[in-house]
Design brief:
Chain lengths: 291, 292
């Protein structure tokens, strides 16, 4: 390599141009729009930080972030815990005593909802939960009666959470199983010789060994939970009475239904800030625990 | 790998207590299988109702076994939404994004990982940021831009947007893979008089082909499953994708339950087939992404 490094810049050119046009300029424009009042037609009117002060006093905005917390429970906390138990069971018990084929078949079953377009999953569940859908048919058959699961503000959010758990479970299972294969079996043997039981081994060896994967799962799923849109659109459109509104649906609604482009842009910017802050926090935490 | 399994099973035989062959293992298996069945229930119910006649459905409800095996729901759905056209749209959009996204990621990562251009840490961080930004924070300006450029409601607009969004992740992943590319191979290529362009295609690409194919498959399936930006950008029958076709019929009260189920079935079939074909690559890919 005698020609130095300058020539490599050419290879970044297409990426730089495309990135500028599709990400940087639109993002900058969005920032600008968030400081204006605009219906999408005519010229945006500069209003400074008014959209942001309005946001802070908007109950729906706070509801949307509370619902995001529910999404984090449904898409990160619960699937990671269940995934941990399932993958350890598949690896330790099923894989060893019933063969790796059985284990990988079951793993594929858990992963199946992950490959569907998430909005298709949403529509499928929307039908199952409809007043005349399959869930109520079961309810009637066992004498529980009917319920409008997605139409009742009390049950809508728990139902959306249930659907998201169903969608998400396969992801941690697949990653944790791969992680478990990486762990040195000698560690377990040594612990066993020392008389450590299954749970003790799980606690002292498995959990610390798969920490990097746990970080990756919690980070990527948290970002996904903060961004969630498709299932909300398909299941409830944010309703009833904002019970399932999330920030991304809130922004979409402001942009394209209410024609409050500036306000929508402010919501989107606030969401971006939260995502970036959460990611940086995660990466900092990861850096600290690893060093 | 084989020797490892051999020694382990020998240990197991020497010490039968190690894998207690008791009844407990069957209980565990039953519990896991039960969980797996619970995951499958929605698919089973959908499958059962996709093949019913509307009269059978309204007469006997969603849980009854179909009285007769009907293909009418599937036919109605296929024709009503021009499903063949949606399938073509999805394939064209996802296929183009997969190929273009991988090429763009590769060019970026070549400069960053092998070229080690100055400030590469910042550039990688910038691409990572682009991957994190919610699409909501880009969508309105992109929508206005597409309108003023005459690209609104065109597949091209979606292809361009997703090529860039996917390549943000691809750049991040490939740059770290190429950062550890064997120096000896590059030096050998230089000694043979290969320029950068030749080195990229003759030396680098063949070496990292497995990673590239994982990326290709992921970009394809991610783009296929995308909803938000296509919902905004693609508004009519001639441009919409498979997930949009199903979603846009959802509010339609005229759709009977059997057609909805048939529609859901046809819409998820391509992804399931794709998953079955590429299962191993996909699982490998999820892991590659996780371990970096």
């Amino acid at each position: 390599m005698t020609r130095g490094k300058a020539g490599y810049w050419w290879y970044l050119l297409p990426g730089a141009v495309a990135f500028t046009a599709v990400v940087a300029v639109p993002f900058g424009t969005n920032l600008y729009l968030s400081l204006t009042k605009w219906s999408g037609i005519g010229d945006p009117r500069w209003i400074g930080f008014d959209n942001y002060t309005r946001l802070l006093h908007d109950d729906v905005f706070w509801t949307s972030f509370r619902n995001t917390a529910a999404m984090v429970i449904a898409m990160v906390v619960v699937p990671t815990l269940i995934g941990l138990v399932l993958s350890a069971t598949l690896f330790d018990v099923i894989g060893r005593r019933f063969g790796p084929k059985t284990a990988s078949f079951l793993r594929a079953t858990f992963y199946l909802p992950q490959v569907l377009p998430v909005v298709v999953a949403g529509i499928l569940w929307g039908w199952l939960l409809r007043p005349d859908g399959a869930v109520n048919a079961v309810g009637k058959a066992i004498g529980l009666g009917e319920h409008d699961w997605l139409g009742d503000p009390k049950t809508a959010l728990p139902m959306v959470m249930l659907v998201m758990i169903w969608v998400q479970i396969g992801y941690p299972v697949v990653i944790f199983m791969a992680a478990l294969q990486r762990v040195d079996p000698d560690l377990y043997e040594a612990a066993e010789i020392d008389g450590a039981g299954w749970f003790r081994r799980f606690q002292a060896i498995t959990l610390p060994q798969i920490r990097p994967e746990t970080f990756v799962i919690t980070l990527t799923c948290t970002i996904a939970a903060l961004k969630v849109f498709g299932p909300i659109w398909a299941l409830t459109r944010g309703g009833p009475n904002h019970a399932t509104t999330v920030p991304s649906y809130f922004a979409y609604n402001a942009f394209f239904n209410k024609l409050q482009v500036g306000y929508g842009a402010a919501v989107a910017t606030a969401l971006t800030l939260v995502i970036v802050a959460v990611s940086i926090g995660f990466l900092k935490l990861q850096g600290r625990t690893e060093s | 790998m084989t020797t490892l399994t051999l020694t382990r099973s020998r240990v197991a035989r020497k010490d039968p207590d190690r894998y207690k062959q008791g009844a407990a293992r069957w209980v565990v298996l039953a519990l896991v299988v039960l969980t797996a069945l619970l995951v499958l229930v929605p698919f089973a119910v959908m499958l059962m109702n996709a093949f019913k006649s509307p009269a059978d459905y309204s007469g006997n409800g969603p849980l009854a076994w179909p009285k007769s095996f009907q293909l009418d729901g599937l036919k109605t759905y296929w024709q009503q939404v021009h499903f063949g056209g949606k399938l073509v749209n999805s394939i064209v959009i996802s296929g183009s994004v997969a190929v273009l996204g991988v090429v763009l990621s590769l060019l970026n990562a070549y400069a960053l990982g092998i070229g080690r251009v100055r400030g590469r840490m910042w550039i990688v961080a910038l691409f990572l940021l682009a991957n994190m930004i919610p699409q909501e924070a880009l969508v309105y300006p992109l929508y206005s831009m597409a309108k003023s450029l005459g690209l609104y409601n065109s597949r091209l607009s979606v292809i361009i947007i997703f090529t860039v969004i996917q390549s943000a992740f691809g750049t991040y992943l490939l740059a770290s893979v190429l950062g550890t590319f064997p120096k000896a191979l590059l030096e050998a290529a230089a000694l043979d008089g290969a320029g950068r362009w030749t080195t990229l295609w003759r030396v680098v690409v063949p070496t990292v082909r497995p990673t590239l194919s994982v990326l290709l498959i992921f970009f394809f399936i991610w783009t296929w499953n995308e909803f938000f930006i296509p919902l905004v950008m693609l508004i009519d029958n001639s441009t919409q994708t498979v997930p949009l076709a199903l979603a846009s019929l959802q509010g339609d009260r005229l759709m009977d339950a059997t057609t909805t189920n048939a529609g859901a079935l046809i819409s998820l079939l391509p992804t399931v087939v794709f998953f079955l074909i590429f299962q191993r690559t996909l699982t490998r890919g999820v892991t590659v992404g996780a371990v970096k």
